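Per your request, structure below.
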């Protein structure tokens, strides 16, 4: 008998109480709804880690065919360079333009490429890591079978790019625009496409299970055969009913919420990317008004019906 009591006591000590489990579920929901409250965006962390690159004087201002190059300051236009197998690190490319260069099997790390232009690059089987590419423009870039990790590509523009069979790890592509991009058989690990525009993008057989596409816009995008279990597709516009069924059956998160559904019908968000952005803006404004209105109503009630200090309300049961 005593052994049964001890087991029951151990079970009560090891099992979390009901309130604890409810609180854990609440924090889990908040983390999924507003992840920025619990951690910084990858783009901010990447920018902070690259702040020390420009403090030292540059070692060179021209690209060469040397196997290892670092502390470069590249400005202006550079084209028709053979950079196959070259390793470039701790360099500044912001605002530069690279065109018709061969960078296959190259290694690029800890570099600034903000507002840069990459045109007609052959960079298949390359490894790019820890790059700040915010606002960059990539056109006809071949990055097939490459490994891209810890890249900040917010507000980037991709046109006619090939990233088939590539692996993207913890890349921030929020607000970017992808047009005619091939991501077939690609593996996207922890990538953020929040608010991105994907037009004629091939995502067939891609692994999207840990990626976020919240508030993105899809147009003529192929997702057949993609792994989407656990992927976040909430408030995504432009998807057909058949594509939504594929995502729902695959285990993706599709719940957009009542407020989004109302504004989507009123503003006809299915007609294009701009109406979709107007719907998202209307949803944000609506929630801001509600958040302001609720405490205002309590404050107004306190003014119109104040509590008499000499006769406070009684909580005793009659």
């Amino acid at each position: 008998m005593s052994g049964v009591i001890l087991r029951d006591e151990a079970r009560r000590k090891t099992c979390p109480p009901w309130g604890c489990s409810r609180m854990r579920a609440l924090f889990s929901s908040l983390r999924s709804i507003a992840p920025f409250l619990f951690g910084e965006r990858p783009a901010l962390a990447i920018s902070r880690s690259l702040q020390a690159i420009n403090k030292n004087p540059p070692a060179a201002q021209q690209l060469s065919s040397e196997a290892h190059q670092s502390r470069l300051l590249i400005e202006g236009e550079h084209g028709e360079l053979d950079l196959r197998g070259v390793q470039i690190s701790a360099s500044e490319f912001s605002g530069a333009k690279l065109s018709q260069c061969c960078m296959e099997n190259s290694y690029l790390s800890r570099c600034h490429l903000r507002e840069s232009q990459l045109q007609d690059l052959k960079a298949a089987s390359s490894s790019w890591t820890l790059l700040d590419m915010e606002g960059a423009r990539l056109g006809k870039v071949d990055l097939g079978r490459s490994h891209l990790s810890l890249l900040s590509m917010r507000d980037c523009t991709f046109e006619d790019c090939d990233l088939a069979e590539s692996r993207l790890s913890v890349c921030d592509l929020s607000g970017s625009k992808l047009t005619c991009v091939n991501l077939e058989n690609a593996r996207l690990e922890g990538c953020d496409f929040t608010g991105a525009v994907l037009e004629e993008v091939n995502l067939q057989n891609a692994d999207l299970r840990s990626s976020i596409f919240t508030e993105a816009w899809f147009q003529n995008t192929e997702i057949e055969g993609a792994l989407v279990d656990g992927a976040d597709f909430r408030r995504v516009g432009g998807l057909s009913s058949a594509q939504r069924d594929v995502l729902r059956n695959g285990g993706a998160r599709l719940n957009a919420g009542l407020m989004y559904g109302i504004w989507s019908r009123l503003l006809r968000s299915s007609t294009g990317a701009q109406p979709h952005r107007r719907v998202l803006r209307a949803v944000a404004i609506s929630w801001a008004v509600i958040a302001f209105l609720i405490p205002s109503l309590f404050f107004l009630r306190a003014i119109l019906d104040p509590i008499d200090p000499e006769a406070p309300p009684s909580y005793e049961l009659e």
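Helices lie at 2-14, 18-33, 42-49, 241-250, 258-267, 273-304.

Regards,
D.
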